[in-house]
Amino acid sequence: MKVLLVPNYSKESAVDGATQLTHWLEHEGVEVLWAHDKKLYPDRVVDTEGVGLVVSLGGDGTLLRAARIVEYSEIPMLGISYGHLGFLTCGGPEDLIETVSDALSGDLHVSHRATLDVEVDFEHADGSISTERRFALNDLSLGHGVRGDMIVFDVSVSGHHVDRLRGDGFVVSTATGSTGYALAAGGPIVTPEFHGMVCVPVACHTIMARAFLTSPSDVVELRISRERKADRLFFADGQPMGEGLRGVRARVRRGPGDILLMDRSVRSFYESVSRVFYGRAKRD
Hints:
Layout: E1 2-7, H1 12-27, E2 31-34, E3 51-58, H2 60-70, E4 77-81, H3 96-104, E5 109-113, E6 116-123, E7 129-136, E8 139-143, E9 151-157, E10 160-167, E11 169-173, H4 181-184, E12 198-202, E13 212-213, E14 219-224, E15 233-236, E16 239-241, E17 246-254, E18 259-263, H5 268-277
Parallel strand pairs: 1-2, 1-3, 3-4
Antiparallel strand pairs: 5-18, 6-7, 6-17, 8-11, 8-15, 9-10, 9-14, 11-12, 12-13, 14-17, 15-16
């Protein structure tokens, strides 16, 4: 079996941890691969053939990068926190070897995290349309450009028109992504066991627009109105799509495979919610 390490190369402690982990794994007879530094080699593809475990060493952003490498293949993933929040990670550097050892021996809980299959249509200067498709673990977001113009767009779910909205944008997230941008925009915290989508309007010019949930089989569509020539930018897990082009329509559905995220127990999600959002609240 191979283990793929995805360190945050901008954190010396994470790289040191990956080096320490490499020495231990090789001593245990496990083949180790390192994902490349994406800032230095943005176009290089990581080969996951034969990989049985992916370990990210960094924060939640590093884990999202690891998820983009894995995509829908359902290779188990483990996050070691060297970041600020570490909401999605399983342990810290002080538990590095013990946590990875438990993962390899099958002693950790596996959480099935729903993913997104994102398609966005972009308009070119000559009027032609191209489509870009992306994986996402957290969300697809629609936002305005640097001029801050209001966007007008229609929201539909599985062919049923919900509303025409005017505002700063819209977020379609998984349960995992509900604690990210969707939460910042006023959406709910959603248990990972929920496999539908969380839809959250962003700063809309009405008090009627509210967040809502879909079923796992639904398809959410955002169609940009042509009545305003505002910039409209699409991001999948914070990564820009169609750079330099105007998005005209997005379709979001549940992805064909889950992310298998390792943690200590079924209680890990609520323990993380307590730690990050409620100040380690404890009850007698």
